[in-house]
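Posting here for the record, re: nicotinamide-adenine-dinucleotide.
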Amino acid sequence: MQLKDRIAIVTGAGQGLGAAISRAYAREGAKVAVIDLGLEAAERTAAEIRAAGGEAMAVACDVADRAQVEAMAARVNEAWGRIDILVNNAGITRTAMLHKMTPEQWQQVLAVHLTGAFNCLQAVVGGMIERQFGRILYVTSTAGVLGTIGQINYSAAKAGILGMTKSTAKELARYNITANAIAPGAATPMTETIRTDDRFKEKYLDRIPMGRWAEPDEVAPVFVFFASDAASYVTGQILAADGGMTIY
Ligand SMILES: NC(=O)c1ccc[n+]([C@@H]2O[C@H](COP(=O)([O-])OP(=O)(O)OC[C@H]3O[C@@H](n4cnc5c(N)ncnc54)[C@H](O)[C@@H]3O)[C@@H](O)[C@H]2O)c1
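Prediction output follows.
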């Protein structure tokens, strides 16, 4: 087991990629705090993990809300004594062409991806520094590297995550805390429109050399790697699990 007795927080884990990461972590022996906006969604993933023999707790928390994040981290610390791994996975899209995008759409996306990741980072980092161990994982996207039409907010947020990853890695390396980012391409509710809408489907698939979407469960092992002892000397890296979409 690659994550035996580690304590992990995975945000946005009620469905999609976050749920797959949580399941993979639990299979590798970690205790997983499954975080999502609603308790019902988080509990669904946690129950799935427990049914498979793993250990999980569900916590409702809006990562963009500082007080909620602090309360969430306090709850995990109280229950399990520490936090070893943070996966900043929670994300949203608010798609609109840039001349029509509202200030609210711009703010909402930045609030979840950037402020949310920053809130969670600050809530866990003190304990990690004290114990001289930590694994921070960020989730970026091809959008952050290539830019996406109709998603100037999301592309800016995901490019921002790249900067956060590198800063986190440089600042925390001396404490034996690593920070890495994954750029996934996975079939989840977030990508349903481009996967099913005839206007986008073929065009998008044409840009993926492997010619297909990933299942979330085949992207999750990359998250296991970065959190594991196998990646003890790997920090500040961006790994694309995107079927070759960003080969250039
Ligand atoms: N699916 C892809 O192809 C793809 C590609 C690149 C990057 N990503 C990134 O991967 C991550 C997961 O995406 P997904 O495809 O699984 O999305 P998803 O929409 O299926 O799931 C996202 C989860 O995050 C939760 N969430 C949203 N806002 C939140 C908040 N403020 N606080 C807590 N939880 C919140 C949602 O309730 C949902 O359960 C996101 O960061 C996304 O940007 C996905």
